[in-house]
Amino acid sequence: MRKLLLFLFILSNSSAFSQQTIRGVVLDSVTNLPIENATVTLLPNNVNTTTDERGKFSFINNLGKVVSIQIASIGFETKTIAIASFNSSEPLILSHQKTSLQNVIVTANAGQEYKTISKMDIKMRGVSNSQEILRMVSGLFIGQHQGGGKAEQIFVRGFDCDHGTDINIMSDGMPVNMVSQAHGQGYADMHFIIPETVENVDFQKGTYNASKGNFTTSGFVDLKTKNGLSNNLVKLEGGMFDTYRALGMFNLLNEHAKEKQQSWYVASEYGYSNGSFDHPQDFKRFNFFTKYNGKITNQTYLILTASTFNSKWNASGQIPDRAVESGFIGFYGALDSTEGGETSRSNINAQFVTTFKNSSFIKNQFYYSNYYFDLHTDFTFYLNDPINGDQIRQKETRNLLGYNGSYHHQSNIGSSQLNTEIGVSLRQDFTTNSELSHTIDRYTLLNRVMYGNITETDVAAYINETIKVNERFSINGGLRIDQFFNQYKDHLKSDSLFKAKAATINPKISFNYHKNNTTQFYLNLGKGFHSNDTRVSVIENGRKVLPGAYSADLGTIIKPTKNLLIQTALWYLYLEQEFVYNGDDGSPSPSGKTNRKGFDFSIRYEPIPSVYVDADVNYAHGRFIDEAKGQNFIPLAPVWSSTGGITYKNKNGINGSLRYRWLSDRPANENNSIIASGYFINDFVLNYTQKKYEVGLTVNNIFNVKWKETQFDTLTKLKNETTPVEEICFTPGTKLAAKLSVSIFF
Hints:
Blueprint: H1 2-18, E1 20-28, E2 39-43, E3 47-50, E4 56-61, E5 68-72, E6 79-82, E7 92-94, H2 115-125, H3 130-135, E8 141-143, E9 153-156, E10 159-160, E11 168-171, E12 174-175, E13 177-178, E14 187-188, E15 198-205, E16 219-225, E17 233-239, E18 243-251, H4 255-259, E19 263-273, E20 283-295, E21 300-314, E22 319-320, H5 321-325, E23 340-355, E24 361-377, E25 392-413, E26 416-440, E27 444-468, E28 473-490, E29 496-516, E30 519-529, H6 534-537, E31 548-561, E32 564-575, E33 580-582, E34 587-589, E35 594-605, E36 611-624, E37 640-649, E38 654-663, E39 666-667, E40 675-676, E41 679-689, E42 693-700, E43 708-716, E44 725-732, E45 737-745
Parallel strand pairs: 1-7, 11-16
Antiparallel strand pairs: 1-4, 2-3, 2-5, 5-6, 8-9, 9-10, 11-12, 13-14, 15-16, 17-18, 17-45, 18-19, 19-20, 20-21, 21-23, 22-44, 23-24, 24-25, 25-26, 26-27, 27-28, 28-29, 29-30, 30-31, 31-32, 32-35, 33-34, 35-36, 36-37, 37-38, 38-41, 39-40, 41-42, 42-45, 43-44
């Protein structure tokens, strides 16, 4: 026994002596702030990892002989340092350089298969308006209806997500989706985000990230705002249809603060547009945003953001095909010109990141939002009330507060590296006087259909474990538990109080094979869910109100040449039930089980150093499972879609892009007898950029195509009609619209 113990002691110590620990931090030379997701590679054995949100990396493993360390990040220089001269106490500083596919390394991290493409796209294409933020997600389409201030309708992976029912959207870790919202479950209005403040769009399709909970069925999108500004900015825009915008972004701290890794800036914008419709939108939007980064102790870093937003607009709304075909109104006309809305949101978001001596860290996030929403729409015209019409008002006032906490630790199991993330979260929504009413001309109340207070609580805990078995193979396993508590006080029923609760458990697992720095294969399996509206949950007493979504992805990322990157995936998703609360008539709208399957294909190519070509092609086949063949189509589910373009950047300052987006025809009802028409649209951007200024021209819909941006199969009756008609009602897409901009940098 003594000999055995002595042998094990010697073996364990010899293993420890053979192991190396290499740690460091990577910073931006301009802002002196951490660079997240920089790729760090040990040479010559090509073992790599990526930096975390603190800019830190570490290798704790049997690394073999290490000669040098290579650090690369998209938009930065690639730096190689001999291991003999590496000092872990000194930060690694990367300078900015022209973004190029040549600097892209296919990394080995499970669950991060979309990070490379998302970083390349935002660096090359940029974000100049709120719509472009979501279009950074490959395969995602958006559509606007009922005015420019309303949240966009979202299509991805065979889902008509409505305004967010089946996609989880966050901004700096703070939820954007609104549960039990007056207009629709998961309503995700992103207009409080100033597009120029966005640094990166992190996303993943599917149900595979345990830290992401409600609405993560088709996937999630997490917007990351800039931690600091490289320069101050003033921007003025003006264009057709009385479109104007002014933007300012300013650093508030000096160079001395930057040396201490502190940053504080403000950004504000005001926009106005009448739009291309026959009835002016009179759309106004104001945004203010500020963000501070800095160390408050030697171990703790504070990231604090605050913002406020308000918008108001008139809308032309959806119109039936027959009203246009008969000449009663024009293609850009309206049947109810009093539609429109007003909304506002103010946020405070504080994140504390504390690092321990063993390089583990804990992250605490507290957030609060005050939200107001007031929307007037008219979908059926004179179907229900042939005298006064069918206009409705959806209104709510909400206080949203929450907490996210997570602990991150890296350790060894023999020769394998283990990364652990344990997290908890709490989200509490208090909605006052959530209302669905029947109105006339936007101001006159006829009667209330629903009216009450909603309280919804989501308490969750999760664990993510990633084990790097060796330099090529890693496994990620996750488990998430959510407990919901729902409460509804119905003002129309003598303030009767209804309660319900429900819970869901969602496991995940991912396998990643990193053949080399140019090839990666992955298999993702997982379960996610979307919740239903509280007003339905209390009716069902919490039963079957958290339907599960089971999905799988089999994909690869390859870089066959230094200037070509390809990503493709086959995927499948089964959803237990597609029922959501129908906010337009105050009733639940249950439907059955569905499955979807398809593929995604993305390509990024640089034929010459100044030209960047990108294209995404996506296919989805979705059907109801329990319905008869021919009666089992999923209404408005996208089938074929594609986006892409050519971006040109020259050293002399001339740069621009020509882009397209194509959405094929798709069924508008269950038997495919009514079709939502597809479209093909082109946009053009041309800029002349110098160190101190930029002049730009943007032209949307350059060929002035008449297209239907959003479409619905709707039963409607026009004034003086005796019989209702079921057909496509649509919101027209924008006409050709040109806009000039001037930016000053200082």
